[in-house]
Write a structure and sequence with these properties.
- The protein is α/β, with parallel strands linked by helices and 380 residues long.
- The protein is built from 13 helices and 13 strands.
- The chain has a 7-stranded mixed β-sheet with strand order 1-10-9-8-11-3-2, sandwiched between helices. The protein has a 4-stranded parallel β-sheet with strand order 6-5-4-7, with helices on both faces.
- Helix 5 links the parallel strand 5 and strand 6.
- The longest helix is centred in the middle third of the chain and has 23 residues.
- The radius of gyration is 19 Å and the shape is globular.
- The two termini are 31 Å apart.
Length: 380
């Protein structure tokens, strides 16, 4: 287990790392926000305050960043895909490469692939999207409806990423636009992470507009390979002074690669199982995300499918449309603050009855379809 980390009685498993709030990094580029603001149809997504959750969690205020509709899609992923594709095409134009259309290749559990396909269609490019097993047929159909070529893979997410990378490398007119990084492939995933920074900037502005200028005390973020979490860590750990919030990552028990890696102090791959949180069903942390997660996360937890489904239902009853992956943030905070050992973790995270908690709900139910009433869903 890493230095300054401890586990406490908790089911599902979790890890708390009290030293993370002192770590600092460089900020994301400021021009990303202006880029998104200039896109047709762009507007900030809502930040909803839910007093009943604050009472349940015994904190001062709870806000949910509702990403159920972002640039016409039911998840936050368009932020990263649009910025990365913009950078790719601008670089190709500056290098004098042939001006004809390129094929944007990616692997996806659903939302990222659809965002890449939508961006390609709007810009007159082509898209080829590889999809692992377990993604809901409606999510696959939504990608195909963006005029993308879809290849379904009889394997897990990590294998699907490998096949997409091979396909992109085999064609001179193709570019891999993947939201996870590994040695030798890090620049484009870095642009995707930069794109997600707009979400965090909006939270700051919305909290200020709501009369809370000090910022959150705890931010909970669902995690697959860790790219969104990298963006969140970058945003909140790049401030040279002032209060730093506690940052919590939330994963499915069936694919807790970040929790496992934090516990061991080094990035590891895990064998993934089946989970309704299909968009988080990833077995290997992104190589560029790992140093940020290792040094900047205060806590990590893995949650069950049932806990995420209950959280999604509870959010829906409060007026927030959330899929299983998005609702994982609420499920994780419930485990950490109210489960066995919760008081010890609450103290370690610096939380009390006046604290402000922000939950990132990264998708709406349309991104991750599920059969009504049975708590079974498909992919992100």
């Amino acid at each position: 287990m890493t230095e300054n980390a401890f586990s406490s009685p908790c089911t599902p498993p979790c890890l708390v790392r009290p030293g993370a709030r002192t770590w600092r990094c460089a900020p994301p580029p400021a021009e990303v926000r202006d880029f998104h603001a200039a896109l047709p149809g762009h507007s900030p997504t809502p930040l909803a305050e839910l007093p009943s959750l604050a009472a349940e969690l015994r904190v001062g205020r709870v806000f949910v960043k509702d990403e159920s509709s972002r640039l016409g899609l039911p998840a936050f992923k368009a932020l990263g895909a649009s910025w990365a594709v913009h950078r790719v095409l601008a670089e190709r134009a500056a290098s004098g490469e042939e001006p004809g259309p390129v094929t944007l290749v990616t692997a996806t559990d659903g939302n990222h692939g659809r965002a890449v396909a939508r961006t390609a269609r709007l810009l007159g490019q082509r898209a080829h999207v590889f999809v692992p097993q377990g993604v809901h047929p409606r999510a696959v159909a939504a990608i195909a409806a963006e005029r993308a070529t879809v290849t379904e893979v009889a394997g897990a997410y990590d294998e699907t990423v490998r096949l997409a990378a091979e396909a992109a490398a085999a064609r001179p007119d193709a570019v891999l636009v993947q939201d996870t990084a590994w040695a030798g492939y890090e620049r484009i995933p870095g642009w995707i992470v930069e794109g997600y920074s707009t979400l965090c900037a909006e939270i700051d502005e919305q909290l200020t507009e709501g009369g809370h200028v000090a910022g959150p005390d705890l931010v909970a973020v669902p995690v697959g390979v860790g790219s969104l979490a990298q963006a969140v860590v970058t945003h909140y750990r790049s401030r040279p002074s002032g209060r730093a919030p506690a940052l919590l990552s939330v994963e499915p028990e069936a694919a807790a690669c970040v929790l496992e890696s934090l516990g061991l102090g080094e990035p590891v791959s895990v064998s993934t199982g089946e989970t309704t949180m299909a968009g988080l069903n990833c077995g290997t942390p992104s190589s560029i995300a790992w140093p940020f997660l290792r040094d900047g996360l205060d806590a990590a937890v893995a949650v069950t499918d049932l806990d995420s489904a209950v959280a999604a239902d509870d959010l829906a009853a409060l007026g927030v449309s959330s899929g299983p992956c998005g609702a994982a943030s609420l499920a994780g905070v419930r485990v950490v603050l109210t489960g066995a050992g919760g008081e010890e973790r609450r103290t370690a995270l610096g939380l009390d009855a006046s604290s402000v908690v922000v939950l990132l709900s990264t998708e709406g139910p349309a991104a991750n379809p599920r059969a009504t009433g049975d708590h079974r869903t498909g992919g992100e």
